[in-house]
Amino acid sequence: MTIDFISSFGGLDELVQIIYQGAHRFVLLSTIDDEKWSLHLGMSGPEGRWWRGIWAQDDILSLVGSNPSAILLDTFAEKLADTFTSGDLFISGWNPTERDAEIKASPPAFPPKERPQDSTSSCS
């Protein structure tokens, strides 16, 4: 199956969210192109740096199944956009000094250590 990223995930294109977490502030940017969904996560301040995560077709299909309907893809993308725009995200695994830190952005109700299987890709 080939995913039409622009049609299904267009609602995630050019989204920007600021996430306040304790004394730290993160900026999360979302973009979509014909082949992938990309997230750029920046940490502000003197220790600031940027991380990037990319979800291509195989990554999305591993989450929603190998032959999802257009309705399922649209619903999945809408839920992602709602979570993103609500600001209801928790950033974990970040380390300002580690170049290949495995970053997770997830709803706070599902901290990474409590999820049975991680449903977010990492940013590096």
Automatic annotation (TrEMBL):
This is Uncharacterized protein.
